[in-house]
Each structure stands twice: as structure tokens, then as C-alpha cells.
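Our preliminary data section would be incomplete without showing what the modeling component actually yields. Below, a chain of 371 amino acids is followed by its predicted structure, encoded as C-alpha cells that our downstream tools consume directly.
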Amino acid sequence: MSALVDHLARFAGALRSGGVRVSLSDEIDATEALSVVDVTDVDEVRRALLVALKIRTRDRAAFNQAFTSVWLGRGAAPARPERETGRVRRPVLPRGLVWRPEPAGDETAADPGDGSTPGYSPQPQLRRRPFDALRPAEVTAMERLLERLTLRLATEESRRFVPTRGRGLVDLRRTLRRTLGTAGEPLALARRTRAAEQPRLVLLCDTSGSMESHTRFLLCFAIALRRVARRLEVFAFNTALTRLTPWLAPGKIRLTLQRLADGVADWSGGTRIGACLGDFVTRYATSCVNSRTTVVILSDGLDRGEPEALVRAMRTIRARAQRVIWLNPLLGDPRYEPSARGMQAALPYIDRLASAHNLESLERLVTYLAA
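Predicted structure:
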């Protein structure tokens, strides 16, 4: 971590050299932000630094140049004072590469076999590996990656501006209003900045037996979303519908999953998608779904009920929601075709049909939600 702090200080110094205002408190905020993101994900690091360092719109070009040349090491870095000569320089961090300082001359260079030597992280392999093919030792690592995944939703900028006490654009209207109490003298400028986007989401998760190998990870994803999307409602369905939102406990994945498995009726049993979505429409659609809501259905579409019930429910959900996304783990197999009765009934009312069989597919979902 100390090497990362050194690298951040070097980057902040390069920004200041380029005329970008970056304070020590901003660097501290950036250090905390980097501690909760995947530092091997270039896009994730860039977004975290943009937010934590409070980069203004007019400074974006200078930030991008410094990020490429200094943080990624893809150009000539600005000269640094002599006192930094001899420090360990953090090299490029391509996706999946874990950097650790080389051992000093009086330390052993032998690989102890415990993963402490420089090398490639298994994260790229985990991102592409199907959930139903994970080994027991990889489950915890996958849960951690799912927890980090949703951070980009929390840092996505909204089109809406809100007042701020820090740096931001000058708010002329509020500034002039303040002058009413100071005899027309603008003693302090009011400022505003873009708010962090808060997506309005409804997740409907299929917990039937055919989804058993994926349910754990999809619910981990839902728990992670709960941390950044306060306007989130989560439901489980199989032969009946259960509202899960009050049960989701961020940071307590194992406990939460155990409570869900114990408390949800017919967990890993059969499925009646149409009847359950119809129940959702009757009991919750009015309060949970409006023209700004994205409804995400996670299911393989294998429905034992009548297709007409699913058509009626999907038609109502589509009419109320901003967009409807259906995530089907079976789409991870290139041979799959959505020919099941449930999928055929739902397709006309879906804005996006995508896979949910591994971490990469969920990353694409987050990118789509943030657009």
C-alpha cells in the first residue's frame, strides 16, 4: 500500500505541475477510494481518481494526459526533485497485473510459493469463468470482486447539479441571492457540482432449482448494488414471490445468503415465472416502478406456468418502466437459443437480453446501467 501512496503522490504532483488544483485532503480521499476498488482495472481506477481528486471539467484534458503518462507510464513523466531519486517507481498496471516491489539486495528473490512474489492475478480468469464452474477456493474471491463491481455506479455523474461547499462551477443565481443580505456585495461565490447518479432499480431474481448454481452470485451482486443504489428493490421468485430488500445486509454476504435460503419458500424448487411476476405487478408495481425505473429480471426463462400469465405481467412492467433488462445465464453458451416458452413470451417486452453467467457479463450490465 505504501508503494501505491507514493505513486499517487507522484501523480498528484504531476497534476499540480500541469495547473490542476489538488490538495493534500484530496490525495487522502483518493487513497481511501483506491483501497476499495480493483487497482488492476484501469477504468475503475480512473473513475475513482476523477471523483476523489474532484477534477473539474476544464481540467479533464490535463488529468487524462497525466493519467496516461504518469499513472500508466505510457509517456514521458515530468521530472521530479532529486530527493525522490532511488525510490521504487511503480510501473504500468495493465488489467490483471499485480505489482509488488522487487526485493532489495539483502532479501531473498526466491519464490516462497505463497503468492507473495510479482506475478499475474487470477482475477482475469475469474472474470471470465462461469459461476457454475468455480472451484470452492474461488468462491470467496468472486464475492469480493462482486462487491467492488458496483462502485462505478456510485461514481457516475448525473446531469443534475447540486450545491457544494467545495470546488465547482459558480452558481450565479445563488450568488446574487446571497448579495441581498450583504448590500449587494458578492462576498462569497456560491458553487454547484454534478450529483452522483442514483439509479432506480428493481431486481427480480429467479431462485428455482435450475438457477441454483448461479443464484448465490447473482444475490451477491444484488447485495453489492444495495451499497450504491439506495433506490433499489430486490425480489426472489420461484413458485412464489418474496421481497428481499429488508434482508439485504451489505458486507455480510454469507449471513445474508443463509438467511435468504432459510427464509424464502421453495428455495431451489420449481418456478412459475408468469404467476410470480403477476403477483409483483399486483402488489408492488405501483410503488416500485415508474418511468425512471430499470427493471432487471435474472432468470433462465424455464417457466412451468402458462405463457399468457407471463405476457400479461411483462406487458404491464414494460408499460411502467423506463427499460426492462432480462439476464439469462444460459446465454453464456454460444449454442443457446431463447426457444423456451417463458423466454418466447417475454422477448417482445425486453429492451436488452444479456447473459449473467460470469463476472464479465455483470460488468457489461453495470456499464449499461451507468450509461
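The chain has a mean pLDDT of 76. The first strand starts at residue 97 and ends at 98. Preliminary results of this kind motivate Aim 1 of the renewal.
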